[in-house]
Amino acid sequence: RVELEGLYGQLKAALGEAWGDYKIALGQFALGSLSQAELSWVLQPLLCPPAAAGAPAAETAKTTTSPLHLHNAFLIALYANSMRDPPPNEVAPWVVATDKPSNAAKNAGAVSGINDQVEERLKREVMALHKRDRKRIKGLSKNAKTEDTGLQEILDYMQELAVKPPSQSQANNEGAGLGKTNWDIEIRRRYAQPLASETLEFPTLNEMQNRIEPICFEEGLTGGVQQGSLQGVAELVERSAEVFIKETLSRLLSHARSNAADGMGVQTNMFKRQLRKEELALENGTLQRNAAGLLPVQMDAQVRKDPLTAYDLRLSMGLCD
Predict the structure, then answer these.
(1) Which GO terms describe its biological process (predicted)?
(2) pTM of the full predicted structure?
């Protein structure tokens, strides 16, 4: 993971008193309360103050790094860490107490009357609509059809793989001999393992076993590890991952394949016309399929088609809707 303490301290020192406005603006943007244009309008005077913009070049060179540069570096570091394993602690120890999220801040909106005002305004707007429109809006959630995004299955699979830390109540109920603190060294080995997205190689059996073992210790599954059943689990995960990747690639690449024998993908007009002629000849008995059940035009398309590349994979992911 990228170390954020240095960037965090420099950005906070560079913004000074504007640090509170900076946090509020980013929080509202993350929650959807601000658009990108509104966020830029709020952060522009904070990250690029007028005094710094009109300073001479010689004087600017002597100053420290600009808040805009620190802001970009900080967000890029956050994005890089989001692609890696989560940290062992929920909040970094170097974050000051005033910046930590508290339960009082989370429940402040429920205590105040802001939510009541929003609900009252929404109720007035809904009641101002026609009865037919209100009935149609009410039935949208019941009759809504789930759209297949193509990648939803992959996203659900990745979310299921995410290891969730045990709750505090479970940790307190564990005995002293099975406490999580006894396995801290084994659990921390999980974060030292390289990711397959970084090495750009399919993980081997030993790499999967070294990654599964700390997760078992973190979840309290120490019995299976001590009995030596970890190798069988690693073999099952390796085969499952290989089958899943192959099926996913074949399903995605079917969107970029043209004139396929199974009818999936794009079909050109020339291929369709010839296919209809041969199907008509097949019904009349003047033409027969081969041993694989393909017509001559389908066999010719398979012979003349080019191999699929990474560009076709990116295209198929864009078309997989």
Answers:
(1) regulation of transcription by RNA polymerase II
(2) 0.37
